[in-house]
């Protein structure tokens, strides 16, 4: 009939193909077209899929419109859409008041922040995260960042760097605060300087550092206790090969009878009491086991 996406077509497309007002109304009456939103029709069947509903909302909002905020997060698979309507951002000055559409006039929204996924214009993952950071609490936002990383949409380090291009946006501050915690990394020298007093305070002797153990370089090692401590600078982002190597290393250490602990760099610097407490309990347990 006319160019259509996800089962919907605009009145403008129909008219461009030569359909008159009467012809369109005739097709509505005989069930070949169903009004989905003003100026947008479902073709052949009144029930739209989720993607069809999104496409209808974008088409109804007109030129420069794209799925955004919670609806964009749902399309990317990193969040849940808010009930009651579709979130759409429009790159022009406008005032759109339509049922089932939450439209935002955003003439300053850069064109490069709009991409196409499944045929639907949508804000890119980074823009979507920046937008949602204005609406979500820290825990929900952290889950979104995690999902974006797991789906290989954007990793935390890349996201943190990209925030420089969004300076001044309302969502940047909460995102940066979250990412500084997640991607925080100490240099090896700084890490050792901070970690040694924690180990000493937990009753542990001076550890060996950067030793080869079971064929892998470890951060801290106590051979008399059979204790290995590893530290991670990144909380989430690990390539598939890195994850496989981590599993293999852990398995080799366990098979050799070693106890392994893992802390983030953030914990070492900002949560020393927790690190010291875990080290102390582990040291006591290993000492008892050794005496036995």
Description of the structure:
The chain is an alpha+beta fold and 292 residues long. It has two domains: 59-181, no CATH class; 188-291, VSR Endonuclease (Endonuclease, Chain A), CATH 3.40.960. It has twelve helices and twelve strands. The protein has helices at 11-16, 21-29, 50-61, 69-76, 125-132, 138-150, 156-162, 172-182, 188-201, 240-255, 265-270, 272-291, and strands spanning 8-10, 33-37, 40-43, 65-67, 86-90, 101-105, 114-117, 120-123, 208-213, 216-222, 227-232, 259-264. A four-stranded mixed sheet has the order 9-10-11-12, sandwiched between helices. A three-stranded antiparallel sheet has the order 1-3-2. A three-stranded mixed sheet has the order 4-5-6. The relative contact order is 0.08.
Count the beta strands: 12
Mean pLDDT: 89
Radius of gyration: 27 Å
What number of domains?
2
Number of alpha- plus pi-helical segments: 12
Instruction: Choose one word for the global shape.
Output: elongated
Distance between the termini: 82 Å
User: How much beta, percentage-wise?
Assistant: 15-25%
Unreliable parts: none
Task: Outline the biggest β-sheet.
Answer: 4 strands, mixed
Strand order of the largest sheet: 9-10-11-12
Structural class: alpha+beta
Strand/helix succession: EHHEEHEHEEEEHHHHHEEEHEHH
Helical content (DSSP H or I, runs of 4+):
40-55%
